[in-house]
Design goal:
This protein is of the alpha/beta class and 371 residues long. 45% of the residues lie in helices and 17% in strands. The protein is built from twelve helices and twelve strands. Strand 9, helix 9 and strand 10 form a beta-alpha-beta unit. Helix 3 packs parallel to helix 4, helix 5 runs parallel beside helix 6 and helix 7 packs across helix 8.
């Protein structure tokens, strides 16, 4: 073949290569203005390497919308930073929870978010993780984790959550009521909420506890509904004024039981919120009047930010509490459209928004990976 043929072929190949390069560059420029990951200004070295950061989020409780929102928030925030985020929920199974941590330890994860690890075994598990060089942030877990060097313990401000709900109950009932307490021992957030409850009873001697019960399980709301229904059969109208539910799974079960029994004179004051909760609270003649809460999706996101700071070698606090808000049925019912976890921010000022631990370099990474 002629020299011209080979020359033409070579030129065509170069042109094709340049074209492909241009396409790749153009695709990258939508994300990074043509900058390579390694050249992003101010981004810690750990995040400019080719090997992707891998995170595991392991939660003991599950089967509820709050868990789904929490995991979604963690996954979304991590992926926006370019991390690979795997999530797991044990649905209340202690053995599965600890197995998941120990199995993940053998894998190539850089960091962990551990949620609702309430027992002593969790402390031992986390020690193994940190000794293996893994970064760890925990949420609503055993307070003894504070003894593990380098671990940050996060929680909702449980004292504030309980106080918001209980103060409203006392106000609405004018300091005098017979109430049912839905609570379960053993979980750190429940212990903190119980302390506020006990203090409230001491400060308001005419607030009387009629009954208390609660169980944490994969079907907590169903079990609570059945238990409240049985309780209502024992107490005629006028004997119970309100229910204080320390968990939304309790509140949603109680609300359904009250509705079925036609006992809407009983008012519910709860803690936590989810799409299912909001739907229930907005329901016709719902007894669920107030719930104190922190956006669970935001909780997941903030935990990931803290973990990212640890991976970057930056200073992080030993503990961090997320600010609580009070959501009222009256506020929701004034809305012209059904309120969900997305548009709740239109009702509650500042809901779902926080720049806590969101560093400038994180915003740079998010811009880089924006699609």
């Amino acid at each position: 073949m002629s020299k011209n043929f080979w020359r033409s072929t070579f030129v065509s190949a170069i042109a094709a290569t340049l074209l492909l390069t241009g396409c790749a560059s153009g695709g990258e420029s939508k994300q990074t203005n043509g900058k390579a990951l390694s050249s992003l200004e101010g981004v810690p070295a750990r995040f400019t390497k080719d090997d992707q950061v891998k995170i595991k989020v392991i939660r003991k409780i599950g089967g509820d919308d709050h868990t789904a929102q929490f995991l979604a928030g963690a996954k979304q925030e991590g992926e926006s930073l370019g991390f690979k985020v795997d999530v797991f929920t044990a649905n209340g199974d202690t053995a599965k929870f600890h197995d998941a941590i120990n199995q993940a330890l053998q894998q190539d994860y850089d960091g962990f978010v551990i949620s609702h690890g309430d027992d002593a075994a969790t402390v031992e598990d986390v020690k193994k993780l940190t000794e293996a060089g893994k970064s760890v942030v925990t949420f609503d877990s055993n307070a003894d984790l504070a003894q593990v060097n380098g671990v940050t313990l996060t929680s909702q401000d449980d004292e504030a959550l309980a106080k918001l709900a209980l103060d409203q109950l006392v106000k609405d009932q004018k300091g005098k009521a017979n109430i049912v307490y839905l609570w379960v021992d053993g979980f750190p957030p429940m212990v903190r909420r119980n302390k506020v409850y006990q203090d409230t009873l001491k400060a308001n001697p005419e607030i009387k506890e009629v009954e208390r019960f609660g169980v944490a399980a994969a079907d907590t709301s169903t079990q609570t509904q059945n238990a409240v229904a049985a309780m209502l059969n024992k107490h005629k109208k006028g004997e119970i004024d309100a229910i204080f539910a320390t968990w939304d799974a309790f509140a949603i079960g109680a609300a359904r039981a009250i509705k079925e029994a036609g006992r809407d004179e009983i008012k519910i004051y709860g803690i936590d919120v989810s799409n299912a909760d909001l739907q229930e609270i907005q329901g016709k003649e719902s007894s669920w009047k107030y719930t104190a809460a922190v956006d669970p999706k935001l909780i997941g996101a903030v935990n990931i930010r803290l973990l990212a700071k640890k991976l970057a070698g930056e200073e992080t606090p030993q503990t961090y509490d997320l600010e609580a808000s009070l959501v009222s049925q009256e506020q929701l019912q004034k809305s012209k459209e059904p309120v969900n976890m997305v548009n709740l921010s239109n009702i509650i000022d500042g809901w779902g928004k926080s720049d806590a631990f969101e560093e400038v370099w994180m915003k740079t990474l998010k811009e880089h990976y924006k699609k």
